[in-house]
Amino acid sequence: MLIKSTGRVDRKTKNLVNRLEPGEIAVINHEDIDEVAANSLVNCKPVLIINGAKSISGRYENLGPEVINKAGIPILDNIGQDAFDRISENDIIEIRDGNIYIGDTYIGQGELLTEDVIAKKLKETSKNFEKELNKFVENTLEYAQKEKDLFLENLEIPKVKTKFKNRHTLVVVRGQNYKEDLKAIRTYIDEFNPVLIGVDGGGDALMEFGYTPHMIVGDMDSISDECLRLCEELVVHAYPNGRAPGLKRINELGLNAITFPAPGTSEDLAMLLAFHYDTELIVAVGTHSNMVDFLEKGRKGMASTFLVRLKVGSKLIDAKGVSKLYRESIRLKHLVGVIIGAIIPIFIVGAFSPPGRQLLKLLLMKLKFAFPI
Hints:
CATH topology of the largest domain: Rossmann fold
Number of strands: 15
CATH architecture of the largest domain: 3-Layer(aba) Sandwich
Strand content: 15-25%
Number of domains: 3
CATH class of the largest domain: Alpha Beta
Number of helices: 15
Distance between the termini: 74 Å
Largest sheet: 8 strands, mixed
Radius of gyration: 27 Å
Strand order of the largest sheet: 7-6-5-1-2-3-4-8
Shape: globular
């Protein structure tokens, strides 16, 4: 393999994709590449991905590398931290048989993740799944015990301008299959006009489909300046002690925001806000709801999400994966049924009207001539 191109370097994949151009080399430091990150990289069309960490560590079955491989983009994996640190933005990187060079300087080497290598590594993850599941459940229960009073009773909800009462609320996270699911529920959005909450990058996801979010909730680290400026209300997720790093960016943009100090995820807070202010229904798209989702986010449990969903469950509809229900093409028997259903009323109307009876008689006469008995 011989590849030579400009390198774009970032420890955070979500930041890198904002400046990665087609034909360049993406240099990341992303252990266990998840599907969302993989799709964002694929959309940028790099010629190669170099990963300083293990794209598949073996802890759980992460499908990101498989997505990248199917898109025809090679991954040079696990080059190590020293080699990663030696590559700078805009370096002209050359790959020769798995070895990395900048000019004549040897940087390091990695493992090329072929389809067979990826399949083998994913198969090996099944051996660790039960152990990871046990640890995940234990952590979830431990933190749920600590946080249950806070989330179920004593969490102080900030005052907001957005009106939720007597309206539905759509909470959008830029998670797995969010595009497909938003496409599947566009009719619902247009008909019910719900309150639109973007969780960080979920605001940009809504704008991709022509909607301006009423509210953004999150750390404000993965959303565009344009969306922040257009949105009607900003809620910065702060640490329980009140520290809110996301406020710095809001202040730099000259915008106003309120803070919401709480543990857990930003999507939890979005649901709690809607529930507290008497929304009729919460429809969630792209949210994190299972073990793999949370391991991909680097979390060891899902205590807050478990507790929040217990609290808001009577009003919550999770639309994640709804698009998969509509992927099947129309079956022939269904099409025939529709055609017959349309013909029967026409036949009945025709049989009871004089012109219709004459037409049916002519049709019967032609059939007799065509098929003499």
